[in-house]
Design a protein that fits this description.
0% strand; mainly alpha; 68 residues; DUF4244
Length: 68
């Protein structure tokens, strides 16, 4: 009984793995929303005052360095 159920489950998993034609519309929508949200968070972090001042300080220090 358990062996038969295991074989049926194994066969179903194999069919699902082979029968994957790509993402559905809902998966595309969720992926697009997640990418847009990640972009918004990244933009907010990068344009924050602390990041801008830190990057400006690094660039200023690099430009003032003398090679000798």
């Amino acid at each position: 009984m358990v062996g038969r159920m295991f074989r049926k489950t194994q066969a179903r998993v194999a069919v699902l793995m082979i029968d994957d034609d790509g993402m559905s519309t809902a998966e595309y929508a969720i992926g697009t929303i997640a990418a847009a949200a990640f972009g918004a968070v990244l933009y907010t972090v990068v344009t924050g005052d602390s990041i801008v001042s830190a990057l400006t300080g690094i660039i200023d220090k690099a430009l003032q360095t003398t090679v000798g």
